[in-house]
Write a structure and sequence with these properties.
Distance between the termini: 43 Å
CATH class of the largest domain: Mainly Beta
CATH architecture of the largest domain: Beta Barrel
Number of domains: 3
Shape: elongated
Helix content: 10-25%
Strand content: 25-35%
Largest sheet: 7 strands, antiparallel
Length: 500
């Protein structure tokens, strides 16, 4: 989860002041605080470090505190949202009131003329709020009102500008050189405690959380990261910014040793685009995808952790024009393998729109290479989720039509039935009328009203079709069948075990 939190009447504690010796040399051409020559002598020696102090003294002046002042509309009626609102709603006047709120985070200066990088969520308004001002506070306690140059919610990055010159700054490094086990240092402002420094190692270099789509790829570290560290830099032992601290994974909301940073290789091109006042352009195929779990891998007869499954192809988009079909397993994109660490979304998003790329898919047991001209990803694209009906009522195991070994009873889908269950009347398939509670189909979420459109990528139109295809799978000694099912016009592949 991302932590950008609003606080009413928050107390901002001052950051650590830098001494005169730490300020940039103003008598000669200005250089970055993490200039290789300057850091080489200050960095700890290889292996277990004796101290990070000299290196931190060089880097800390370029790390800043970022705070926002926001106007938040709150409901003045204390009974709002409760059963008593109807009876007591007028006692509080019933009108929303406006209060002041704040948010706290970190950032770092990337140029001598005052460009600052942070997370988008650090400066984004809270619910029912508007941001009135953004303040950047340096380690020597100087405060500057910042202008928002650009924001990119998709990557959670933002660029600010403070007016002045000869600011201490740092440069991005090459996060591709980072290795698991390398020492790293995080500098930021957790809980408003300015100038806090923590150290740890890199725990993973390609951490995918499964929640953030095209930019779900992070450097994981056990360096302590908490609320308020968001937007701050993660340094390697050469003083390079190899990541931007963005999130923590925690059951408690506090640090448990799993911090996530946006890799520099991913952040730097976006930062440069935002500095120019431009909007990042991302590649787009126009497909719905799902990972291949063990059941789907068995039903397709392929290795697990190999590619991703296409469960939807949007009409008129790049994928359809390239000939990609629902049920294809995408193995490679632009000559790069699709894996759990390098997802299809990530690979496509990082291709320039308009570029022609090869896409290798597995279709009916054979590899097919297609060529796609990548489209432009919509700015507010949200991939459709899928959730089976969670009705709790028991389903009768008696199934006069359908397939007992699959554990479902079905009937042909007519336009009238389709309209009644919220499905396009032109949809072909069979609709489930009952599910055996002891079946794997029930465990996988299949319920009454779910439409089955295909079995092992062969379309079905009648209960007889379903029974025939399931029997074919059984004769082929397959323990599972791959169903394409639809609920309220949202489709997904589900692998279902065959019963006795």
């Amino acid at each position: 989860m991302r932590y950008a939190y609003g606080i009413t009447a928050a107390l901002l504690l001052g950051g650590t002041a830098a001494t005169v010796a730490l300020q940039p040399n103003v008598t000669s051409a200005q250089t970055a605080q993490n200039e290789p020559g300057a850091i080489a002598a200050a960095a700890p020696r290889a292996g277990a470090p004796m101290s990070f102090a000299d290196m931190v003294a060089r880097l800390q002046p370029a790390v800043v505190n970022i705070s926002t002042t926001q106007r938040v509309q709150v409901q003045s009626n204390p009974f709002a949202g409760t059963p008593f609102e109807r009876f007591f709603g007028q006692q509080g006047g019933g009108r929303p009131t406006t209060r002041e709120g704040q948010s706290l985070g970190s950032g770092f200066i990337v140029s001598a003329d005052g460009y600052v990088v942070t997370n988008n969520h650090v400066i984004a308004p809270a619910n029912n709020a508007t941001v009135e001002s953004v303040t950047v506070t340096l380690s020597d306690r100087r405060e500057f009102t910042a202008r928002v140059v650009g924001r990119d919610p998709a990557s959670d990055l933002a660029v600010l500008k403070i007016e002045g010159e000869r600011f201490p700054f740092v440069r991005f490094g090459d996060s591709n050189q980072a290795r698991v086990g390398d020492w790293v240092v995080a500098i930021g402002n957790p809980f408003g405690l300015g100038g806090s420094v923590t150290a740890g190692i890199i725990s993973s270099v390609n951490r995918v959380t499964g929640q953030l789509g095209a930019y779900d790829r992070f450097i994981q570290t056990d360096a302590s990261i908490n609320r308020g560290n968001s937007g701050g830099p993660l340094f390697d032992m050469q003083g390079n910014v190899i990541g931007i601290n963005s999130q923590i994974l925690s059951p408690t909301g506090g640090n448990v040793g799993i911090g996530l940073a946006i890799p520099a290789e991913q952040a730097q091109p976006i930062v440069e685009t935002l500095k120019k006042g431009q909007t990042p352009q991302r590649g787009y195929l126009g497909v719905g995808i799902q990972p291949i779990d063990e059941g789907i891998a068995q039903s397709l007869g392929i290795e697990r952790n190999q590619g991703e499954l296409i469960n939807r192809v949007e009409p008129g988009q790049a994928a359809e024009r390239a000939g990609i079909r629902r049920g294809d397993v995408v193995l490679r994109v632009n000559n790069q393998a699709v894996t759990p660490d390098t997802t299809l979304s990530y690979l496509v998003a990082n291709v320039r729109p308009g570029t022609r790329i090869p896409i290798e898919v597995l279709r009916d047991g054979r590899r097919v290479t297609l060529t796609a001209t990548v489209g432009t990803r919509p700015s507010e694209e949200e991939l459709a989720g899928f959730s089976m009906d969670e009705e709790s009522e028991s389903q009768s195991p008696a199934m006069p039509q359908g397939d007992a070994s699959l554990g479902v009873a079905v009937q042909a889908l007519t336009p009238t039935i389709a309209r009644s269950i919220g499905v396009d009347p032109s949809t072909r398939g069979v609709v489930i009328t009952a599910v055996d509670p002891s079946s794997d189909a029930y465990a996988k979420g299949l319920r009454r009203g779910v439409v089955i459109q295909s079995v092992n990528r062969t379309e079905v139109a009648t209960p007889a079709d379903l029974e025939r295809l399931v029997n074919e799978a059984r004769r082929a000694n397959r323990g599972q069948v791959l169903l394409y099912v639809m609920l309220r016009n949202v489709g997904r592949f589900v692998a279902v075990e065959l019963g006795e």
